Amino acid sequence: MATVHFTQNLRRHVDCPSVDAEGATVRVVLDAVFAMHPALRGYILEDQGGLRKHVTVFVKGVQVHDREGLSDPVGAADEIYVMQALSGG
Q: Is the dihedral of CA 38, 43, 46, 52 positive or negative?
């Protein structure tokens, strides 16, 4: 199972500790996580199902390429990091 980690700024809004989830793509893994933590979906995905503008996901230290379909492959022992960019000035 892949392990999914969330940054502190996301955990500030939604209770989302690191969690193990199965899946062969980022979409399948995130859907499994959203099944456990439904409130998290709105912070990560836009209405059409792609990543929100200020959210990025890394698999094995590499930023995902498919921000819309989330079809990037995930291995059973991979670590996934979901990060929300901070902005302001």
A: negative
